UniProtKB/TrEMBL annotation:
GO terms for biological process: cellular respiration. It comes from Neoasaia chiangmaiensis. InterPro entries: COQ10-like, COQ10_START, START-like_dom_sf. The keyword Nucleus does not apply. Belongs to the ribosome association toxin RatA family. It comes from the Bacteria. The keyword rRNA-binding does not apply. GO terms for molecular function: ubiquinone binding. This is Ubiquinone-binding protein. It holds the Pfam family Polyketide_cyc.
Length: 157
């Protein structure tokens, strides 16, 4: 039952980060171990997607239902696949310096083999995943709009 909770201050708006996390179909472009993503249905408030993750010799596909509470929260509920359960929540809170992002994930595989394999790399894997989202924000939105700017050097005349 790997569980991970993390809070990060990220210098983008809650709306930008919400949109990035909600764009599940693009996950294979930047998320480590996400090799396939198919959005099966989508409305303003919810989407259903199949994700295929691969690490080492393992490749597993699962279906999840994602509640979109724009722009403050994204909740992922597991529907079908290799897990006993999967809970994942992203919370986006405005901050004068950008957005306070709370990330929580808790899951258990049905297979002891998979559970033991992921247990070895779980914490590092989650950190890599969160870092991949931050890098994706920079790649998508450019330099942070709320990051402090450096004063320009002025040449004496």
């Amino acid at each position: 039952m790997p569980t991970h909770a993390e809070q990060r201050l990220i210098a983008y708006t809650p709306e930008q980060l919400f949109d990035l996390v909600a764009d599940v179909g693009k996950y294979p472009q930047f998320l480590p171990w996400c090799v396939r993503a198919v959005v099966k249905s989508q409305t303003e408030q919810e989407l259903v997607a199949d994700l295929t993750v691969g690490f080492g010799p393992f490749r597993e596909t699962f279906t999840s239902r994602v509640s979109l509470e724009r722009p403050s929260r994204i909740r992922v509920r597991y529907e079908k696949g290799p897990f006993r359960y999967l809970n994942n929540v992203w919370t986006f809170t405005p901050d004068p310096r950008g957005c306070l992002v709370d990330f929580f994930v808790d899951f258990e595989f049905r297979s002891r083999l998979l559970q033991n394999a992921i247990g070895v790399v779980f914490n590092e894997g989650v950190r890599l995943m969160v870092s991949a989202f931050i890098k994706r924000a920079r790649d998508s939105y450019g330099p942070s709009p709320t990051a402090p700017t450096r004063p320009k050097a002025v040449r004496p005349s």
